[in-house]
Specification:
By secondary structure, the chain is an alpha/beta fold. The chain contains nine helices and eleven strands. It has a six-stranded mixed sheet with strand order 2-3-1-4-11-5.
């Protein structure tokens, strides 16, 4: 049995849709239950529904063979995983945002940065030689610059609407983020046929999706 950890939340439905199209089907009854570990109808796969930040942990430690989670989470975790597929779901951007779009044009000295992504933020500003004080938050990061707790924020955005509604502008786009298939290094070797079959099945779905998009264009 191959165990796949899936990030709960907005990515979960898109991930399950991809898996269904790849031939991995879960009964509606199982999905409607509150169980966090369920098997597919074939009995060959088990799905774990966990918080996004926990997906790399489960996969790196081998509790799950594979995981489906956003690139933002993987970058922040720095987990030692194989990333064979960009799933193209949950497309977002990791950005620097502030009340003033000219924030980085001014010399602020030590920049106070509110974020749920301390490693990404520290790495980004460190590469630019900008000293920062990281203010770690777990929610409502947009409030920090508005209330003066921070000069700017680093966060994941989809449309940027929440930023605009709070009087913030995107100063920089650090990187793009989409859902990725992550694979445990040992499982990639020890369960090569099963892992390879999953990668191939998902790859075929992604190729069909891309073909359909190209025809629409």
């Amino acid at each position: 049995m191959l165990t796949i950890a899936i990030a709960k939340g907005r990515m979960q439905d898109d991930a399950l849709t991809l898996l269904t199209r790849a031939g991995l089907r879960v009964s509606a009854k199982a999905l409607a239950s509150r169980r966090l570990a369920i098997a597919d109808e074939s009995g060959e796969y088990r799905f774990l529904f966990v918080k996004p930040a926990d997906v790399p942990v489960y996969v790196e430690h081998g509790t799950a063979d594979c995981g489906m989670v956003g690139r933002d989470v993987l970058l922040e975790s720095e987990a030692d995983l194989l990333l064979p597929l960009d799933l193209g779901i949950s497309r977002c951007k990791i950005v620097v945002a502030a009340p003033s779009p000219q924030l980085l044009a001014n010399d602020h000295g030590m920049l106070r940065v509110a974020t749920k992504y301390p490693r990404i933020a520290r790495s980004h500003f460190g590469a630019r030689g900008i000293p920062v004080e990281i203010i770690g938050l777990t929610g409502s990061v947009e409030l920090a610059p508005v209330l003066g707790l921070a000069d700017c924020l680093v966060d994941l955005v989809e449309t940027g609407r929440t930023l605009k509604e709070n009087g913030l502008s995107i100063v920089e786009v650090i990187t793009e983020s989409t859902g990725r298939l992550a694979v445990n290094r040992a499982s990639y070797q020890l369960k090569a046929p099963a892992v390879g079959a999953l990668i191939s099945a998902l790859g075929e779905v992604l190729a069909r999706n891309k073909g359909a998009d190209d025809r629409e264009d």
